[in-house]
Amino acid sequence: MADPLPEPDRAEGAPHPRDTARLIGQEAAEAAFLTAFRQGRLHHGWLLTGPKGVGKATLAWRLARFLLATPDDDGGMFAAPPPETLDIPDGHPVARRMRALAEPRLHLLRRGPNEKETALSQVITVDEVRKMKSFFTLSAADGGRRVAIVDAADEMNTAAANALLKLLEEPPAGALFFLIAHQPNRLLPTIRSRCRALRLPPLPPAALSDALTQAGGEVAPEDRQALAELAGGSVGEAFRLANAEGLQTYAALVRLLSDLPRLDRSRANALSETVAGKAGAERFDLLVTLIDLFLSRLARAGTLGQCPPEAAPGEATLIARLSPSPLAARGWADLAGDLTLRARRGKAVNLDPAALLMDILLQIDGVAGKLAAN
């Protein structure tokens, strides 16, 4: 029997957003929704945007749980007072059913299996949207609200997006849609215009550390700032970095690049050999991500004339030396785009990852030499 396919809306090793007890660091978005609810001004479509991993899916599940567990205010003299928070007890029947994916008034739209059912599809197809349309054609058991979560809306193909647009243009009675989008500009403008947007910003270091702990990861207090810098305020990325020893790997990369523009080739080769073979695939992806991040930090520092908070010992000194001006910043920005494309192409044609990584390091050394000569 084949192994079950992973859930496409769940970060590997982390709890699913439906199982996350509370949302950390996004109080403004919660307050905006609660205000609309209390004022009776709920829009039928909500677009939750922001960087990947900052809590958009957790918020969507939290809002859905709140709406399905909170009765409508009938305006009578014995009506319950307006809710002050979005909190719903873990033992509430709706909460229990949602954790089990058994709540009949909730539909989850996400990527399904491919045609051969051997892996997940790369996109949300129109067939998946049709299933959601069928869900809304059924009458709600109590005539009340029904909720759909789309995770992620920017993964829909064109046919799926057009099918969803029709539902947003003529929403069924009592229907609310929560669209999660990491890159909202990829959505049809007409979809964006039919939703109220809630943007979730990156998390500050303390909130990110608390959210990471809630997700089952641990970070030492002295590493909070560094992890927040590298993860861009994203809990999902912080979880990946923490599990993959990202801080230690970035520190090793900074030590290696501290010799620029006289790269120690023996040390560079030793680092490259750590990504050799199939076992090194994840480490290769991690190193390419960290290199791209380092180059981006170089470009930003040269443009702004200010170093970002240090994410590894010696990084600030290295950045100040390598990117002292906007001219240097442009050189590093151009290289970042070229190397990202080079890494993707090399991986697509199965180039030796060790050789590919070594080539990337030599390209960085070459640009450092040219900038130093200027």
SSE diagram, text form:
Blueprint: H1 27-38, E1 45-49, H2 56-69, H3 93-99, E2 106-109, H4 126-137, E3 146-151, H5 158-169, E4 175-181, H6 189-193, E5 196-199, H7 205-214, H8 224-231, H9 235-243, H10 246-257, H11 265-273, H12 281-304, H13 315-322, H14 326-348, H15 353-373
List keywords for this structure.
374 residues; alpha/beta; Rossmann fold; 2 domains; 5-stranded parallel beta sheet; 5 strands; elongated
Summarize the structure in words:
The longest helix is centred in the last third of the chain and has 24 residues, at 281-304. It is built from 15 helices and 5 strands. Strand 2 (106-109), helix 4 and strand 3 form a beta-alpha-beta unit. The protein is elongated, with a radius of gyration of 24 Å. With 374 residues, it is an alpha/beta fold. The model has no long low-confidence stretch (mean pLDDT 90). A 5-stranded parallel β-sheet has the order 2-3-4-1-5, sandwiched between helices. It folds into 2 domains: 17-199, Rossmann fold; 244-373.
